[in-house]
């Protein structure tokens, strides 16, 4: 899979010490000899990165010559007024630790090394002051911890560098904290079940599958119980064996034959039971709006009002030049850029858990919301997004609410356009903001980063798309958008290789992207679909990405946007040859088939390719972006298998995964709570809220790119590399382009869930005569619908070791346990109310199949 580059948030997420010194503890002799457990991460700085070391106000960290060198501004009153440190350091009360490091300073000065608590009340464990000189020296001291922060809690080590009148540079290296008796890593703090289900709901009329964790090699009996504990259905599991991605040995449970709506169901196998879940379309329909509400929560430059979000999530406007904010109304470029102007960039959405606003992230997120609307208008049900359907301030202005929300970011993107037509890559704090910090309390100065080709093409693409959708709603605004889009595209063509600086990661993620041919294709496609201009058509058809050449199982993301252009060309009327549009649609079906084939082999089915990079930062967004590909394949072909694949993806993010966890806040008994976020920071400050319902966690990341992950999850199987912890920013962050994927998919799924349970148009009866290691089965297929079938294809899974050896009245095939029977020429048409009879012989041991589909549709049994 193409790697999704990390968001490079390291130092932002780590809280500096309070403005008081850590109290030194007595250096008593330890009762237990220190074990060789290293507690500090990246103490040697061999990778060239400072991650996860942070710096406080007035301090700038850089790794130079294999050392972490801090440039310290003089004039501070106290040692703790200038800091560098690392959070998430585990300590065990009563255990001995040895803190050691190499250090030197340009000008001799005292420096205090300290250990303590990173959050209120900021209790100290130990500290000791050393005098640094220009010559590198080794320093060390030993102490016994008086506080207990096991695993990756609220422990911290820091260096206090202030209290001097002069500027200085202080370098540290080979920083080590050794001790304790509990080895870090190897823990999974998420309580799990052995029966894994969608913790929210299964939609009536659609397949219902779960996963059993078991090393048994034979089928096990499962029981479905209602909320009263009464058994309502039973069946046999299908052993699948070892699942490398999760590390589990698994069985498949298929209870699709039970279709009675209700709440509080549980699945059990022996003594093991699942978390409760519903059979209902209501949670999916609720998620459509909760996932969209995320964007109102993330608005910058406006108060978030209690009447729309409730009291706990209400807050004043952030970054509007009201103290202590320095505001977004007159933002200059970074000092080293000297662009000679300032921009008013108020508004837009905060990108993620920090206070930055990024054009390349905002671009794909806005596009995805607008595309959800455009798809609904052209081939779906746009009434779900009509004025008044969302709980936002604009809900009675006569404009579809989804367009209103998207406009909040589209207007910000327009403001990021420089006078020459290029777009600035991002705007954020000059230094990383402490966690937690409510937006209106952020006192950091705000700075524009350089313009970039990628950002400019994002602006061109989204402005052209938005112009198309606003043409019949607000012609003046539509024209403004199109003018900006044309200007941006021309500017990008004049500056085709102005790439974002990969080292621009202070105060905000770099979002560097070395390939922009995909953005050129996407922007040209949007402009062509909106204007029909031949110049844009030429750029589209000449692109190496044309006709979905860039679409694969890797999907799309903010740095790989060519498939966005394909989607627009497949949905929006244009003058391209019909054969080319058909080729694009066919490519979506081809890739969707690849996803389904891979999902059929997974213990926890999800449209995700981990074959190259494992699970990456934001893996859940990749799952959902690929679910969009499946959804569009269904739109383009009508094949039910693609629809079912979309719901399998939702089941995965909502709890049918090896951690028994819903990655969507508010959905399921064990759902994500502690998102990495500066306001939804209840884990750090109980007066602040948890993540609101509908917020999507980034999900498993096997690269373990933050201290919490590195300390807790060393050696984790890929799908288990996740923890619900506010400090686990590489796993549990939220982001606008992740929630836009959830909003698109949940909106599509809600549309497909219908207002009532769709009547099944097929029924399958199955009987078998069995003998030792063999059977002969007779199958009756009945068309219970009102229209004749011109042809039919039966599909089911044959449990155990059973293999079809011969069959009659159909063309039989088997792959693994999956069996299909296709109609013959003489029995292909089955009229309404009519039946067809087929059969087969099989060898091996096993039980009867429990679920059947005909032409991709789940059938009743009996």
Automatic annotation (TrEMBL):
Keywords: Carbohydrate metabolism, Cellulose degradation, Glycosidase, Hydrolase, Polysaccharide degradation, Signal. Residues 755-862 form the CBM2 domain. Its EC number is 3.2.1.4. It comes from the Bacteria. The active site is at 724, 733. It catalyses: Endohydrolysis of (1->4)-beta-D-glucosidic linkages in cellulose, lichenin and cereal beta-D-glucans. InterPro entries: 6-hairpin_glycosidase_sf (IPR008928), 6hp_glycosidase-like_sf (IPR012341), CBD2 (IPR001919), CBM2/CBM3_carb-bd_dom_sf (IPR008965), CBM2_carb-bd_dom_sf (IPR012291), Cellulase_Ig-like (IPR004197), CenC_carb-bd (IPR003305), Galactose-bd-like_sf (IPR008979). Residues 1-24 form the signal peptide. One of its GO terms (biological process) is cellulose catabolic process. CDD domains: E_set_Cellulase_N. Transmembrane segments: none annotated. One of its GO terms (molecular function) is polysaccharide binding. SMART domains: CBD_II. Belongs to the glycosyl hydrolase 9 (cellulase E) family. This is Endoglucanase.
